[in-house]
Amino acid sequence: MTSSRLFPLATTFVIFLIAYGLCIAEFPNMLSTRVVGNLLTDNAFLGIAAVGMTFVILSGGIDLSIGSVIAFTGVFLAVAMGDWGVPPVLALVIVLALTTAFGALMGAMIHYLAMPPFIVTLAGMFFARGMAFLISIDSVPITADLYDTLQGLYYRMPGGGRLTFIGVAMLAVVLLGIVLAHFTSFGRNVYAIGGNRQSAELMGVPIARTTILIYALSSFLAGLAGIAFSLYTSAGYSLAAVGVELDAIAAVVIGGTLLTGGSGYVAGTLLGILIMGLIQTYIVFDGTLSSWWTKIVIGLLLFSFIALQRGLVWLSARRRGAAMPA
Amino acid sequence: MIGREPLLRADGVTKEFFGVTALSNVDFELAAGEIHALVGENGAGKSTLIKILTGAYRRDRGRIALEGESIDPADVMDAQKLGIGTVYQEVNLLPNLTVAENLFLGREPKRFGLTSPREANRRSREILSQYGLDIDVTAVLATYSVAVRQIVAIARAVDLSGKVLILDEPTASLDAAEVSRLFSILEDLKARGLGIVFITHFFDQVYRIADRVTILRNGQKVATRPIAGLERIELVSMMLGRELQEQEAHGAEPVDYSKKPVVASFEGVGKRGRIAPFDLTMHAGEVVGVAGLLGSGRTETAELMFGIAQPDEGRIAVDGRPASFSSPREAIHHGFGFCPEDRKLDGIVDDLSVRENVILALQARRGWAKPLSRKEQEEIADRYIAALDIRTSDREKPIKFLSGGNQQKVILARWLATDPRLLILDEPTRGIDVGAHAEIIRLIGELRERGMSLLVISSELEELVAYATRVRVLADRRHTGELEAGAITPDTIMRAIAAGEDETPGDRGGKGRAAEILAEGAA
Ligand SMILES: Nc1ncnc2c1ncn2[C@@H]1O[C@H](COP(=O)(O)OP(=O)(O)OP(=O)(O)O)[C@@H](O)[C@H]1O
Ligand SMILES: [Mg+2]
Question: Closest by alpha carbon to A215, among A51, A63, A60?
């Protein structure tokens, strides 16, 4: 039923409200546009990448390469603009083209060589990280007028919070992701493949094209996340963003998307990101808690979400049983 | 149609799977405005032929032409673009998408470049109303029954087919009323000049709707003949390559229950919203047939008896001792067996071999600590491969490579192999060819004589007449009556069902449905 499809999303939303409520109860200061602004800015790159991951997981796949792609993007941009003298805009275009092509290649391998996405993107993870090291092993600062302009671009919300460029970019990506998932044929096809690949094929879903597009999209968004990350840190470093793919997966799952594919919402992923960011903010406000608590709480949340999803699958199976005819 | 170029034409189509020839040099012709039945035993190559025609498989050799133009569909989408709509035997659509999304997958209505779910929903309601289906099209397909899913699949294919419509056993889980609705839609399409290929194991349906029939046997085409003037016996013998022994039409002898030991009794067992409380005593050596429309509570009855669902009232006794099953495992432990209706969903372990699929339930019953030896496994598998005439190149072949009907036989074999005391069969002959059909009916009689107690759910009334010693009649999720041996004929069963439906003022429109069924019976 539609309601049961929406249930995980609703649960995530309620958890978010409760978590925020608890935070505010303890630290009334957390109810401010500053906190909201920072939440968006700090998690912008992760949010952008997680939207791509949502599509991958909806199709029943996984993309382990995005952390490395983010690092590669940063290093490439820093070195291209700095050492090679490539005009910033051109550098951005080139890096997005490179990352998108890289994703398309992984998608093609997954489809045509019938290899598990886990293996292919694991290889992609090593490869992209290696390429980043090849370009530079240092943390390379980025100095470009374009960067200064974009970093200086923000909207001051009432209460003093800043809605930064990358924060808005993340929200825009989420919005576009929602449109793509629910209002395009491509989006339907992603859900279809995640539901049952063989049935989808017999219903005429272009499996090859869709698979390639899914991974191209994920890598494109990882590239975009890399740009956001370089705007956030003003540098490119080949050791950056290690493990970001796991954070993205966690956000997607907490957002109510089934790891088995075929069911979930892009909007849920945004909530997942915000919940994770909120936990981090809480720990910063508290000041005495070690940052490991973030990981522990996220771990617990993941456990409970997986249990919740199992429960839902079980429930809907029972309900389906009830709807079966004699 | 003579002298004109046929709508769809295949010449010399050949297909091998790992050295096993599934089709050899098959010619096929479909004219515009005809309904062409395709028949053959399980494993004859029917599904393979249509998968080749529709781009799901690549042929090894041969030529396909649509309206005289050579075509070479690389995938299903290609075929859809050419105006060929198909319902494949195994496709159950996508359970995670809504009904409307399933209907319009790949051709979503668009507004301003974006898909319009609202428009899709509206048109879906419109399409499904032609099939007498008034359901929430925004609900995910998983919430609906097999029959509803099958109708949705058909509706989708019909809507997709501009020129050719291909249906691979589309009526397997439909009841009489739904079948006649489908047929009137097919007649319409035919009048509009579509060519329709229709695969079925129901000869009644072939004679009712088809204009011509093509018979396949062992991957070869035997003949294409007009239905008019074709004797049924001739059709069957072309299909089997031998004469089918005439079925003994008379029913089972009346049983003196007082002499038969009671295997299990169910008293006032029921579950709210699924099946009203019922009493049922199962004796050794009897076959209780269960008749009723789709949704009348037949499967629900079986599920309560086998511990798949738990009753919220009533008493169960096995061998006179109270029992309750919290899971099928406990029921199996008491010597029960259950061969479910939706075998694709509940039964087949795709990648395991035929042998492993056959011994699965028996092994589970013995416990994994006492494994069957390889030799025992092979003996059991071979015995049932022979008994049920399962067509497979060898017993170690993964079951997913068997034809649909042969997969069903394997699952049936799995439950027979456990040699249960009480065996529940839900639609045991669905999708199974005439030859094997007769074989299974004979087998049911044999098991009964050996003292097994059987409960057999079936939509095929002739079949119930052939083996049931009494027939339970269900309507609207209630047990409404019972027919004793001697009084069981297709006609009495139908009347009993209709009477049951009439009694219930239920929201399904009991009266209308009952009338429809009787009309169906008269036709
Ligand atoms: N994907 C496959 N791989 C290997 N063998 C296959 C495959 N599909 C079909 N076969 C084999 O080809 C033969 C024909 O199968 P097909 O499914 O066409 O039969 P069918 O006439 O549709 O039978 P049924 O009435 O049981 O559906 C069978 O022997 C089957 O085992
Ligand atoms: Mg078949």
Answer: A63
